[in-house]
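Q: What would this chain look like folded?
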Amino acid sequence: MKKLVDLLTFELENAFEKAGYDKQYAKVTLSNRPDLCEYQCNGAMAAVKVYRKAPIMIANDVVAALEGCVCIEKVEAVNPGFINITLDAAFVAEYLKNMNAEEKLGVSEPNKVKTIVVDYGGANVAKALHVGHLRPAIIGESVKRIGRYVGHQVIGDVHLGDWGSQMGLVMMELKRRQPELPYFDESFEGEYPKESPFTIEELGEIYPTASAYAKENEAFKEEALQATYLLQNGHRGYTALWRHIMNVSLPDLKKNYSALNVEFDLWKGEADAKPYIADMVQYLKDEGYAREDQGALVVDVKEDTDTKEVPPCMILKSDGAALYATTDLATLVEREKLYQPDQVVYVTDKRQEMHFEQVFRCAKKTGIVRQETELKHIGFGTMNGKDGKPFKTRDGGVMRLEELVGDINDKMYEKIIENRAIEEEEARETAKKVGLAALKYGDLSNQAAKDYVFDVDRFISFEGNTGPYILYTIVRIKSILAKYVESGKEVALCEIQKAESASAKALMLEVAKFNSVMEGAYEELAPHKICAYIYDLSNAFNRFYHETKILSEENEARKAGYIALLSITKRVLETCIDVLGFEAPERM
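A: My prediction, written as structure tokens:
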């Protein structure tokens, strides 16, 4: 289904040509002065250089050529050459009926269905999820859902950090505590124990202890690095211990991600790239891409057009150990073999921008991925406290994600039971849904690359640009629709009628923007655009609600039209929050 702006552009193209001008000047945009008009075209001013006429003369010619256009109620040329357009209300109503008849509310199927891998989450095994894992999880989840909604095949991969130095740290700390374990006995040849030597709670304490000890003890740090190297090269005991770490960590990670309504199709990690590393390294050597530099193996990725220094991409350290770049490249080899993706999107801290620049260039230069494969990095900013510094607990520590979610749910529960009489079980379930909306919307409403202030009190407010405000709007619509049905009526979406008030038309125009917003959010990989849209849509609905007698309207046909408009508004809002990764309760 064509977007409203495209339909208008088509009409303006015909008018420009009819008036004797090139249709390239007929681009239509939303008005930046909604108090004057709904859409505008500024092409007359761009055409001045070619046609050597005053722009207002060109604009007047085009306006005259638009006479009789069924989708336009009013069009006028305004100095110095703007073309201001107001849509016909009956045309807008018909557009909404057509939208509602489509499964995806007017979002067109793509010309080519792409296979897209979204690499997000990136949790390190053996560490508890903390607030730093929030942004990659919820941004990546939304990018994945948006891609699927517009019709692409999208694969979400958590890409765990399960092969790096934290593994060596955990193993050596365990050795300090229990040196008698068979994993550390080089002469042991029997079967290793099936039971893990630690619980998830103990593992959560082992890593931070090991990390802190390594900072003050160089010998321990070197032992941990050597253990990591031995693990990566197939050490039997360390491999068995690694399996225990994975078996204990994964259920806890899945539980915490599930609490965020984040789901991965693939639970792969750096270790899954290991089988591809040796052949990849040999290929890079044989084809002359890799060279030695002070004992390390590197690939030069600098280009003549670079205005800043781009260091070589290091493939192996001087001791032969793999790095993040090694496993990222080998993972691309694996993905090419298994999925042949058209696009791979990485969601990580923006401070990793240079790392991905090196990896992407290396992958393209060496043919690890096809030239047409799009490699994209979404670098996100820092989540800061009210003091402007990275968000911490009250005692200055890094807050566990589980704790953060629990705190928000508790605060939301208190607000819910304050406002109304409700059973505790329902209040708790509602608090979870609204709390998650507060958390996700509070993050996603910011442009990903920007730092933002994590303000819980503002996020959980039912007023302003917040998740709870959006949900409250949906719940208000649900309540009106439920009362209408209880009165014995049926919701008939075909009853959408021509707007009779400014607030009704403004609401209808906002609803009609849905397909344009969704497609734009996909093209730019920008969930914040959907947040901005549903905030505007919620505001438009609430203005209409406060100005209109809906259920008390005596004219039954008019009332049915209002109900139909509310129904499609709810459908659009619920679709949008679903792609953002949260849902609305039945009541609040």
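DSSP finds 21 helices and 13 strands in the chain.
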